Amino acid sequence: MKYPKLLEPLDLGFTQLKNRVLMGSMHTGLEEEKGGFEKMAEFYAARARGGVALMVTGGISPNFRGRLAPHSSQLSSRRHVKKHKIVTDAVHQAGGKIALQILHAGRYAYHPLSVSASKIKAPISPFTPKEMSERMIKKTIKHYARCARLAKEAGYDGVEIMGSEGYLINQFIVTRTNKRTDRWGGSYENRIRFPLEIIKAVKDAVGDDFITIYRLSMIDLVKGGSNWQEVVQLAKEVEKAGVTIINTGIGWHEARVPTITTSVPRRAFTWVTKKLREEVKVPLITSNRINMPEVAEQVLADDCADMVSMARPLLADPDFVVKAENDQRDLINTCIACNQACLDHVFKQKRATCLVNPKACYETELVPQPLNFKKKIAVIGSGPAGLAFSTEAAKRGHEVHLFDKANRIGGQLNIANQIPGKEEFYETLRYFKHLLEETGVNLHLETEATVESLTGDNAKIKFDEVIIAAGVTPRTPAIPGIEHEKVLSYIDVLLHKKPVGEKVAVIGAGGIGFDVSEYLVHEGESATLNLDEWLKEWGIDRMYQEEGGLLDEAEFTPPARQVTMLQRKETKMGKGLGKTTGWIHRTSLRHKKVQMVTGVDYKEINDEGLVIEHKSSGKTETLAVDNIVICAGQVPNRTLAEQLEAKGQKVHLIGGADVAAELDAKRAIKQGTELALSI
């Protein structure tokens, strides 16, 4: 067996888990949709069939005030039980186990009825919470117990009490948010009374033959957070209270430290769980950026924990565990930790899905239909749209021929993976490379498809349909001097590796402008591949001597170049970046002293550099730079499509060839998949 630790059962005494994989809690948005519980049932059942030992639902509130938003889910009466039973029945029929996460948002609630330990507004919510009275605290503890009892009645195998990430329980534990002077505040013993009373009430309600997980914030990553001695003290008390498992929580949502995005090194926080392992005997789960079986196996082999928690990796591939069991590691669709379709969607009140797997949370809707007629299909371009379409169409039984004039697949994914912090795109390319072989796609590299080769009299195959996924061409803005030798496109820099001077102006501040700037200020190994370096850059104290696990000051590697980013718009730079990741990109570039200049017109490029005019003042300035890198958008490659249509050939446009909007792999893969399922 290739992954013996990962696939080893875990005996909990009254029950056994078939392996060491927990699907961590993740809100999907299905919880609030019409017919959402039926969709959730298939979502979780698919992961159960895929071999996951135990799943944890998205956070469900024990009462109205604890809801994340006004219409978010709660489990507080028997009328809710029937809906939840749809989910638990489906999971059990698929051979899995599932626990319900009980989550009270506290001051993170996005509604005016929020409550907390103290009346202190969260920086990520517009509402100031009401301070909970003694009566309200006692009532809330009872609500946790009621929720757990109803979860057991609904067929769940356990509950997870959410005590981390800055939600209500966490708000009681730390001085940052608890300024009380009664028996629920002040000393640490008083501040941890709330979680311990909740655990006791839950255990009384459900008994000992029911999995009770406590999600403990092992490193808060905020000032005023717990210190290590306090974390250990709470863990020991939680163990004494009789929980089955302690799960690892990392960071508060308001922390200015990234914890799960793609630039975070793999298994970046497992050292925290390992540190606690020396202090308690109860089984521990570790989490965050564990996305491949060999990573999980090594975490367990290093004795960091008894189980690993993966949430987004099981969005990306529901069959992760089965593929690991069957030694099909190369066919695992790896989570790239981009957040674009999961967390970004949820924070916009949209249904979660996955950039690399658009079927996630759409298991009942994106279903392949039986083939009535096997078609011969030509696909032009092996970027994300072409790859997604080709493999999905071939799975359905079509004869698919994929053409690309390049000598390798991937299109602009081969650009994305050059950016420090985006190395996970290599895994996407590895996955598609093996999937092309597995599904029998006929791959024609270094082959330029033409009208003649596809439809001419000498064409080797008569294609029923042609899919144009030929991507984009960088747009060249009309700036006087744009032909100057100082000017480079982002393709020149990232793909062709043309030399770039020490002082650089980057025109365009969309996703590509940020990526190019990130690339230019780095030299040598990416911090994403060097955990110690990354921890220093984000000010994380691996010795854990300070509260919240933060250093007084971060240590930054000096930038490789002096970079100035520019945009015409006067709005905040990076406004169009991901909702949960944009701040990270901006902060990372500020760490590297990148100048961000908004509201400019580009007047001229000459031997001196780039001449700009500031719109607000009308002043002209010459930026004395060695190079100007153009990241000013793209235009779709549609020429072949237009020529084919003129010949009467049936053509479909997907990906950048359809809409040239940045490098939108999420839309490209979704569009390719949906077309393949319907064609």
Structural key phrases:
5-stranded parallel beta sheet, 3 domains, iron, globular, FAD/NAD(P)-binding domain, 31% helix, metal-binding, 679 residues, 22 helices, Rossmann fold, 8-stranded parallel β-barrel, TIM Barrel
Topology (elements, then pairings):
Elements: E1 10-11, E2 16-17, E3 21-23, H1 36-49, E4 54-60, H2 78-93, E5 97-102, E6 115-116, E7 130-131, H3 134-153, E8 158-163, H4 168-173, H5 188-191, H6 193-206, E9 211-219, H7 228-240, E10 245-250, H8 270-277, E11 284-286, H9 293-301, E12 307-310, H10 312-316, H11 320-325, H12 343-347, E13 376-380, H13 384-396, E14 399-404, H14 413-416, H15 425-439, E15 442-445, H16 451-455, E16 465-468, E17 472-474, E18 487-489, H17 490-494, E19 503-507, H18 511-521, H19 531-537, E20 562-566, H20 582-591, E21 595-597, E22 600-606, E23 609-614, E24 620-623, E25 627-630, E26 634-636, H21 639-646, E27 651-653, H22 665-678
Parallel strand pairs: 3-4, 3-12, 4-5, 5-8, 6-7, 8-9, 9-10, 10-11, 11-12, 13-14, 13-16, 14-15, 16-27, 18-25, 19-20, 19-25, 20-21
Antiparallel strand pairs: 1-2, 17-26, 22-23, 23-24
Helix pairs in contact: 1-2, 3-6, 13-15, 13-22, 18-20
